[in-house]
Design goal:
little secondary structure; about 0% strand; 1 helix
C-alpha cells in the first residue's frame, strides 16, 4: 500500500520522501527521477530498472536490495549503505557514492563512468563483466576507496583515479577463456595505492601512474606497462 501511495504522490508532483520506510518494497520499471529519499529504509527492496536519475538517496539503507539495470545517473548516494546489494547492469554515470558502503555488492556490468567513489568501502565487490558489457569505471574517482579482495577482472578503468586506494589481494587479471578481455587501466592513477598481492596478470597499465604504490607480492605477469610511472618514479619502457 505504501508504494502505491508514493507513486500517487509522486505523480501529483511531490518529490520529497526523506526517511521513509520502504523495506522490502517493490518499485520496478517506474520513473522516480529527482526523488528525495534521503536516509530512507530500502533494505531488501526490489528496484530493478527504476529511474532514480538525479535523485537523492544520501545515507539511504539499500542493503541487500535488487537494482538490476536501475538508472542512478547523477544520483546522490553519498554515505548510502549498499551492502550486498545487486547492482548488475545499473547506470551510475556521474553518481556521487562518496563514503558509500558497498561491501560484497554485485556490480557486474554496472556503469560508473565519471562517478565519485572517493573513500567508498568496496571490500569483496564483484566488478566482472555482465554477459553483454564490461563494468565501466572509466574516469571514476576511487581515491582512498577500500577495494581489498575485490574482483575487477576485465573491468574498464581508463583514466580512473585510485590514489591511496587499497587493492590488497584484488583480482585485476585477465579473464579466463578464449574470448576473455584484459582489465584496462590505461592512464589510471594509482599513486600511493596499496597493491600488495593484487593480481594484474595481462592487465593494460599503459601510462599508469604507480608513484609510491606498494607492489609487495603484486602479480604483474604479462601486464602491459609501457609508459607507466613505477613506484620509484622511473618510466617503464617495456614494449
Amino acid at each position: 500500500m505504501i508504494t502505491e501511495t508514493i507513486l500517487t504522490r509522486y505523480a501529483a508532483g511531490e518529490r520529497s520522501f526523506p526517511q521513509i520506510d520502504l523495506r522490502e518494497a517493490e518499485l520496478i520499471k517506474v520513473n522516480l527521477s529527482n526523488i528525495d529519499l534521503t536516509a530512507a529504509d530500502l533494505r531488501e527492496a526490489r528496484l530493478g530498472r527504476t529511474n532514480f536519475s538525479h535523485g537523492c538517496l544520501e545515507s539511504a539503507d539499500l542493503s541487500e536490495s535488487i537494482l538490476w539495470g536501475t538508472d542512478l545517473t547523477e544520483a546522490n548516494l553519498a554515505r548510502a549503505i549498499l551492502r550486498e546489494a545487486d547492482l548488475s547492469g545499473a547506470i551510475l554515470t556521474k553518481a556521487n557514492l562518496a563514503k558509500a558502503n558497498l561491501l560484497k555488492a554485485i556490480l557486474e556490468g554496472a556503469n560508473f563512468s565519471g562517478a565519485n567513489l572517493c573513500r567508498a568501502l568496496m571490500i569483496e565487490v564483484d566488478l566482472r563483466p555482465a554477459s553483454d558489457y564490461r563494468t565501466n569505471l572509466s574516469q571514476a574517482d576511487l581515491s582512498d576507496a577500500d577495494l581489498s579482495y575485490a574482483n575487477l577482472s576485465m573491468a574498464l578503468l581508463y583514466q580512473a583515479r585510485l590514489d591511496g586506494a587499497r587493492l590488497c589481494r584484488a583480482n585485476l587479471g585477465r579473464g579466463r577463456g578464449e574470448n576473455s578481455l584484459a582489465t584496462d587501466l590505461t592512464e589510471v592513477s594509482l599513486r600511493n595505492a596499496d597493491l600488495s598481492y593484487a593480481d594484474f596478470t595481462g592487465a593494460i597499465l599503459h601510462k599508469a601512474d604507480l608513484t609510491g604504490a606498494d607492489l609487495t607480492g603484486t602479480i604483474l605477469t604479462n601486464a602491459r606497462l609501457e609508459g607507466a610511472i613505477m613506484p620509484d618514479g622511473t618510466v617503464c619502457e617495456q614494449g
